[in-house]
Amino acid sequence: MSFERIAVLGLGKVGRLAATLLHESGFTVTGVDMQLPKEITPFACEAGNVSDAAIIGQLFSRVEAVLSCLPFHLNSELARLAHLAGIHYFDLTEDVETTNGIIELSRTSRGLMAPQCGLAPGFVGIVGTSLADAFERCRSIRMRVGALPQHPTGLLGYAFNWSPEGVVNEYLNDCEVIEGGVRKLVSPMEWLETLYVNGVKLEAFTTSGGLGTMCTTMLGRVDNLDYKTMRYPGHMELMNFFFHELLMRDHRAAAGEILTEAKPPVDDDVVYVHVSAEGIEHGSLRRREFVRAYYPIEISGERRTAISWTTSASVVAVIEMVRDGHLPSTGFLHQEHIPLDMFLKTRTGSLFDQKKPVG
Fold first, then answer.
1. At a CB cut-off of 8 Å and minimum separation 6, what does 70 contact?
2. How far apart are CA 330 and CA 93, in angstroms?
3. Phi, psi values for residue 19, rounded to 5°
4. With a threshold of 0.85, does the pTM exceed it?
């Protein structure tokens, strides 16, 4: 079922860009935030309290879909209101508990419930499943993503270009994996490994949420499945010291404030994506890889950071596919059920189709 009118809640860097991309893809967009953007936007904006159920309920009566670009703790209530209104729901959350609640709502939804539409979970799950589908039998899918400063300073080698709340949760919440055909939980910031992207040495370690629902859908289809975050070498050891030896794990909000104060956002960032799968193809063991380095690019006359455009483009491409009838219009959308080739053919998804890194 085609639709046109969509609300975008939260007009930070990601939300404003997502709303712009949706507008350019032919949607009628209404952006909502407590504070309106200072810049002139090509879409309509309204000031409003996104925590006010009455305001949101009235807004949802005027649109056919909503995209939440808000902190994850607000999404459960927004999903409930979208379910009540019978409209499509999209978000970027990596929070497992929030997604589980949305899965329950989807059992009786009149619209599509589609959380986890960002970069990870989201795009990397689409890529990982696409690589695995080429094999007669798949023994492993390994997905690694890192949003990093191009020119790191200090021992942490990091900048908080993403939500501090989200990063802290990824570092502290348990991680789902499939190991030896068994679905299990493992601790975050473990399973350290070294890898390279375009000659840049990186480390990768377990973090939560990046697999989305893949442990459910891939159980019995793949022997080993895991997601790790990539950072510059030495980062994991320092973060373990910070959270566990200094006991900052018991003070998550304060931890996010301290880290953001120490490592504020930068404009010159890079998003590394390293996804691989191994399995049997034509009777022989093979390995397939999707490795990219995504840099800031200009969109609509403005330079956009790598993390903002990769996140925004991920969800907008999915919304385009739903509108055009290439994905279901009701129930729950698993990101790993989205065909990669179709995703890359969308107006917005084509931004990811780089054969070589673009600096």
1. 9, 10, 15, 50, 78, 91
2. 19
3. -65, -40
4. yes
Residue 67 CB-half CA count within 13 A? 37
Q: Which residues contact 116 (CB under 8 A, 6 or more apart)?
A: 91, 92, 93, 94, 99, 122, 125, 212, 213, 335
Question: What is the distance between the alpha carbons of residues 93 and 199, in angstroms, rounded to a whole number?
Answer: 31
> Which of these, 103, 64, 79, 88, lies nearest to 318 by C-alpha position?
88
Q: What would the mean pLDDT of 116-141 be, rounded to a whole number?
A: 96
Cis ω before 42 (30° cut-off from 0) = no
DSSP 8-class letter at 109:
-
Which of 185, 287, 168 lies closest to 229, judged by CA?
Answer: 168
**Is 121 within 8 Å of 335 (Cβ atoms)?**
yes
Average the pLDDT over each of 93-102, 117-126, 256-265 and give the range with the smallest value: 93-102
Please spell the DSSP secondary structure of 142-167, one letter per residue: EEEEEEEESS--TTT-----S-HHHH
Q: Which two tokens stand for residue 273?
A: 């994506």
pLDDT tens digits for 224-283? 999 999 999 999 999 999 999 999 999 999 999 999 999 999 999 999 999 999 999 999
